[in-house]
Design a protein that fits this description.
Number of strands: 4
Distance between the termini: 55 Å
Number of domains: 1
Shape: globular
Helix content: 40-55%
Strand content: 5-15%
CATH topology: Arc Repressor Mutant, subunit A
Largest sheet: 2 strands, antiparallel
Number of helices: 4
Oligomer: single chain
Structural class: alpha+beta
CATH architecture: Orthogonal Bundle
CATH class: Mainly Alpha
Order of helices and strands: HHHEEEEH
């Protein structure tokens, strides 16, 4: 790659450096656990749940832009995926669509493996 070329990532693929992340920070882990607990959530819902938990446990609140960045990094690392839930037809003649709702974030199997390693196993 030439020095002047810039790496580009299409929308929805996450941060281009996500694949090279060596470790997850506490916010990454908190987001993964929240998605594991509640299933598919929008960024606003993830932020709300994390802040509710922070309030209950007397921890620091997180901003929506922080969660947006962490979701993008996790997406680039292949730990979460983004999908749109509903579409709306804007022009029936040309069959043009647009997304009606915000994207929903879900865990990938890779993230489930990481979370399984994070949590202590129950032994009976």
């Amino acid at each position: 790659m030439e020095d002047w070329e810039r790496k580009t990532n299409p929308k929805g693929r996450g941060a281009h450096y996500g694949e090279t992340m060596k470790a997850l920070n506490p916010t990454h882990i908190a987001v993964l656990k929240m998605l594991s607990k509640h299933g598919g959530l929008t960024k606003a819902q993830v932020t709300q749940h994390l802040n509710d938990e922070a309030d209950a446990n007397n921890l620091r609140f997180v901003a929506g832009c922080t969660i947006s960045g962490r979701l993008s990094e996790l997406c680039g690392a292949g730990l979460v995926k983004m999908q749109y839930e509903k579409v709306e037809v804007t022009d029936y003649d040309s069959m043009q669509f647009r997304f009606k709702k915000r994207p929903v974030w879900r865990l990938t199997p890779k993230a489930l493996e990481i979370l399984a390693k994070e949590q202590p196993q129950c032994t009976q």
